[in-house]
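note to self — DONT lose this again. spent like an hour looking for the file last time. sequence + predicted structure for the chain T wanted, 104 res
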Amino acid sequence: MPILTVFRSRLNVGVEDLYNTLAEETSVLARGVPGFLEEKTFAAADGERVTIVLFADHVAHQTWRDHPRHQEVQAIGRTKLYAEYCVYSAEVEYTRSFAADAVS
């Protein structure tokens, strides 16, 4: 069953350059994990950032969660980058999609 993770955060003032560098690095690492499906990041007008990551299964998700560099970057996030964050992770029980260009 796919695993969906939602990471909501707010940055400390003045850390955007370091955040952007580390976010790109960890995104590349995540895409290299077998079972990685997709990732999207959004920034709201009020400063909140939301990253949504989808892995094919628990094994892929745990591989990412336990990746040594990912853990190092998490520690940097807690000490330097984030004013606050919250992580949600869940199994995807249902999915449905629609694409207008696929309708004939």
